[in-house]
Design brief:
Elements lengths: L1 H12 L3 H22 L9 H4 L9 H10 L3 H5 L3 H11 L17 H9 L17 H19 L4 H15 L1
Helix pairs in contact: 1-2
């Protein structure tokens, strides 16, 4: 639901306001339906200590949102923790960090990054567990846009160099 909502935000940012609002509303509605009706026991309260990290006072989505708005600097600083920064490098290094240059498409990374930041569960920041699956589609979608940006910087085709770099980085980082 939240990833679909971010597609709506992306459409709004790209000038497709009506389509974006519809997609955003559908994504948020689906998230609310799942969180409140289909699986209310799997939300914030189900794994209180691991899913909220240091936001132990938040017992629901409303409190979590208020806690985040009260301290917006917390999210970026949390990404600097060694295990979380290492995890992001593990996702981006084999692609030469090209997804970081993906421009507006990087908005799709926000729900996954929020889950990573808010979680105190060590397995969420471990690439060998399924928790990274929510980031992978956006990472791989943003990489070609990052490659186009690099190509514009060099003002010449760099696909071969990038392909060799991605192959070497993938072999080096596993």
């Amino acid at each position: 639901g939240l990833v679909v909502a971010m597609f709506g935000v992306l459409a709004i940012v790209e000038g497709q306001r009506r389509r974006g609002v519809v997609i955003l509303a559908l994504g948020l509605a689906w998230f609310a339906l799942v969180a409140l009706v289909f699986a209310p026991g799997t939300g914030i309260g189900a794994h209180a200590d691991s899913l909220r990290g240091n936001l132990a006072g938040a017992t629901g989505y409303h409190e979590l949102l208020l806690a985040l708005l009260a301290n917006p600097v917390r999210l970026p600083l949390e990404l600097l923790r060694p295990e979380k920064a290492g995890y992001l490098l593990c996702l981006g290094a084999p692609l030469l960090l090209l997804p970081a240059l993906g421009g507006r498409l990087s908005l799709l990374l926000l729900p996954g990054a929020a889950i990573l930041v808010l979680s105190a569960n060590q397995y969420v920041a471990d690439p060998y567990f399924h928790y990274s699956s929510f980031l992978l589609p956006a990472v791989f979608a943003a990489a070609p846009l990052g490659a186009l940006r690099v190509q514009r910087w060099f003002a010449r085709p760099v696909a071969l160099e990038l392909a060799v770099g991605v192959l070497a980085a993938t072999l080096a980082f596993g």
